[in-house]
Amino acid sequence: MKLAGSDLTLLLEIDARLSNRMRIAERQGRLRTFAAFLAHSGDSWFWLLALAGLWLAGNDYWKSLAVSLAIGITLTAVVVLTIKFLVRRKRPEGDWGGIYRSTDPHSFPSGHAARAMMLAVLALALGPAWLAVVLILWAPLVSLARIAMGLHYLSDILAGIILGVIMGSVLGLAL
Taking the domains of the chain in order of start, what are their residue ranges? Predict the structure, then answer.
């Protein structure tokens, strides 16, 4: 089944409306603050810095896990950026998240959703179990926060989650 141009336009309009309903970036309050925190908690630089610290301070098990997760982050970023530059979907309009908007103007797929889900799936494969549980709970919250803060459409997040599951599964088998 092939989508006609008008069908795709309708789907994109529905996507934008649903995403806009989930948006809280312009509101003040604790929920917005929490969403902003979650939206940033999936940043690759934060994770790579934390993993470098884990590698420096950890025993052989934690060093190995840190390297595996860093490899996962790097490979997922390459795949996400390749897709983003092929699709070139513009981010939703907004003021919040200027650093993301200036360094990466494309929204599809969400790199944060892909990274968060990849980390969760990879933690399921590599352990420890408590980390997998924490990341499985955290990943969808990061993903939703990216919509709430106006940086992504719902479809960007869904594509990122699917990509993250695929990347985490493949890497879990490979590492």
Answer: 5-174
